[in-house]
Write a structure and sequence with these properties.
The chain is built from 17 helices and no strands. The protein is an all-alpha fold. It binds copper (I) ion.
Length: 530
């Protein structure tokens, strides 16, 4: 214990006075994985609200045809920042928060391997989030590039782009350091007897995700650095007039971008793989096949990137390759979905909020997978490219997939984190309202896309009016519902019925997917060293 530098709970041999900072300084200086996990989760929620307000600006403008509330230029900045903030500021930090809280507890480690780097990983996030938002206030604002920052627009627009490039660099550093911490912790700090194939599946999914992060975040950094060079240092990577090619950016970006989809999805798989067995009172079905399927998804995610680029004019051989390679991912994904269903089969099921969100995840993520399969087909995608069908598809994966899983994880672990039970009635209400409003918002967007409505456009032809009105009503309902989530969480932190050592009828004992005894640092014996 004492060998871990800066561990907040551990007394340091060389420190004569035991001064523990309190209040704000405690959070600034903490090296404790639980503190840092909480900060990640709160930061993520704050960014979720910021990105959510931007989504509501978009949906308000699209409520009816014509221009109502905002200028087209501002609308385009909203689509750009909404995407960047949700991907890098909300979803990724949320799952790093879960990793910080749970991985040391699950593998029986005293803390994360590099406790001080952990602090730094987190504290890079607030300045990066601030830079993203500040880009809005620069001359030209955040531009209309979208979260993908495509040239030529990104090489020509105002100084807001430099803010976003800097933010992406810092966010990348943060997630790479977080991932190095996770890999090192899992590989070096497991309790005796906990072999890799005995780890709770959440640890496996993060181990795999961390490798993805370390592999592709530098690629994104390279892509935006090339934009920076084209902007300020006279290069022509993406400038046709100087011998470059804007399509090169798309290749580099999506070599990062597709694995990024799985950086978001795979930890969500991990959370759901903890919850479904606990509320089925059965061990996870097909543990080993889950590990292999998740690894296969991660490997395949590197070789499918150009399915985002079918309309750039690829050779037919390239189109066929990327189509079939993309379809291949459905196989290991199917293995996972069938394993979750088999875990449910003949289980002793109960339907508390974590289970409800996991079942919502299972159903709706699979639907998002199917629309992904539709889009993987080149001939179909050429029709649907940059339409609302794509927007509907990836929101099923990102919101009903990653976000629902995160909600489930918060409710599942909240009794352990706070010592209190949350208000189950309100949490169930949160689930049902989220489920209904999510589908009201996004299901109709499939129809808009099939009818040809383009994405990232502030105005539209009158025939799209009805579905847009429905979608906007759903979006405001979904947004308001999340204030209920905030209320339930705060209420639980402040008090409520005391949570039992095993709040879910002991079923979470199955969190250890093997019959071997749990490691000694479980929730029951928290690793507090005086
Ligand atoms: Cu992709």
């Amino acid at each position: 214990m004492a060998s871990i530098p800066g561990h907040a709970d551990a007394g340091h041999g060389h420190e004569h006075e035991h001064h523990h900072p309190t209040g704000f300084m405690r959070w600034v200086t903490t090296t404790n994985h639980k503190d840092i996990g909480s900060m990640y989760l709160w930061f993520s929620f704050a960014m979720f609200l910021v990105g959510g307000v931007m989504a509501l600006v978009i949906r308000a403008e699209l409520f009816k045809p014509g221009l109502q509330f905002v200028e087209p230029e501002f609308f385009n900045q909203m689509t750009t920042l909404h995407g960047l903030i949700m991907v890098f500021g909300a979803i990724m930090p949320a799952f790093v928060g879960f990793a910080n809280w749970q991985i040391p507890l699950m593998i029986g480690a005293s803390d994360m391997a590099f406790a001080r780097m952990n602090n730094w990983s987190f504290w890079l996030l607030p300045p990066a989030g601030t830079l993203l938002v500040l880009s809005l206030f620069m001359p030209g604002g955040s531009g209309g590039v979208g979260w993908t920052l495509y040239p030529p627009l990104s090489t020509q627009m105002g100084i807001g782009m430099d803010f976003m490039i800097f933010a992406v660099h810092i966010l990348g550093m943060s997630s790479i350091m977080g991932s190095i911490n996770i890999v090192t912790t899992i590989l070096n700090m497991r309790a005796p007897g906990m072999t890799l194939m005995k780890m709770p599946l959440f640890c496996w999914t993060w181990l795999i995700t961390a490798y993805l992060v370390i592999a592709v975040m530098p690629v994104l950094a390279g892509a935006v650095t090339m934009i920076l060079c084209d902007r300020h240092f006279g290069t022509s990577f993406f400038n046709a007039a100087g011998g470059g090619d804007p399509v090169l950016y798309q290749h580099v970006f999506w070599f990062f971008g597709h694995p990024e989809v799985y950086i978001i999805a795979i930890p969500a798989f991990g959370v759901v793989s903890q919850i479904i067995p606990a509320f089925s009172r059965k061990p996870l079905f097909g543990y080993a096949s889950m590990v292999y399927a998740t690894s296969s998804i991660a490997i395949l995610s590197f070789i499918v990137w150009a399915h985002h680029m079918y309309t750039t004019g690829m050779p037919v051989a390239g189109q066929l390759y990327f189509m079939y390679a993309t379809m291949l991912i459905a196989i290991p994904t199917g293995v996972k979905v069938f394993n979750w269903v088999a875990t449910l089969y003949r289980g002793s099921l109960s339907f508390e909020a974590p289970m409800l969100f996991s079942l919502g995840f299972l159903f709706l993520f699979t639907l998002g997978g199917f629309s992904g399969l539709v889009l993987s087909m080149t001939a179909v995608d050429v029709q649907l490219h940059d339409t609302y069908y794509v927007v509907a598809h990836f929101h099923y994966v990102m919101v009903a997939g990653a976000l629902f899983s995160a909600f489930g994880g918060v409710y599942y672990w909240l009794p352990k984190w706070t010592g209190h039970m949350y208000d189950e009635g309100l949490a169930k209400l949160h689930f049902w309202l989220s489920l209904i409003f999510f589908n009201v918002t996004f299901f109709v967007q499939h129809f808009l896309g099939l009818a040809g409505m383009p994405r990232r456009i502030p105005d539209y032809a009158p025939q799209f009016a009805e579905f847009n009105m429905i979608s906007s009503i759903g979006a405001f309902g979904f947004g308001l519902t999340q204030l209920l989530f905030l209320y339930v969480v705060i209420k639980c932190i402040k008090g409520g019925p005391k949570a039992a050592a095993k709040p879910w009828d002991g079923a979470e004992g199955l969190e250890w997917t093997v019959p071997s005894p749990a490691p000694y640092h479980t929730f029951e014996t928290p690793p507090v060293v005086k």
